[in-house]
């Protein structure tokens, strides 16, 4: 079931017609502790023939990512649910919300897990399902990010496998079907 937050409108360039892919880089909205990793990933994505949107989070300064070419744009916050409707690839930290939102949209993912155990598990599951790739923390360099992102964009198999997962998620019951079952379990009726 797609979900997301309402927020400010997307920058016009995100929704405009494009001739090359859109890559979305985010490490979520929690206070940012992995700025060096985000900066390295942004540097790697800057080498792609793609438009790149970097979201640093509401508590972080976009300037902290450093100087980047014009096709890489850094924002404090963008409504992720809206961005995912335009993205071709998502590079992220492996948080459960971002991982599941990408799977529900059928988007290939490059996962760069950080400190939390669920991030490593999510990264392994995405990679194991063939819906993306992962880079362990010690493997994250601009070159490695660029290489993996290029591979994900070039091989349609990742998008096809992510699409199969999207279709599977879409077949799952929504709240209207689930709540009565849960209510019956709790109340014994």
From TrEMBL:
Protein's UniProt keywords contain Transferase: yes
CDD domains for the chain: GT1_Gtf-like (cd03784)
Keyword Transferase among record annotations: yes
Database matches in InterPro entries: EryCIII-like_C, Glycosyltransferase_28, UDP_glucos_trans
Recorded GO MF terms: hexosyltransferase activity; UDP-glycosyltransferase activity
One Pfam assignment: EryCIII-like_C
UniProt keyword list: Transferase
Biological process, per Gene Ontology: antibiotic biosynthetic process
Domain Erythromycin biosynthesis protein CIII-like C-terminal: 45-185
Protein name: Glycosyltransferase, MGT family
Species classification: Bacteria, Bacillati, Actinomycetota, Actinomycetes, Geodermatophilales
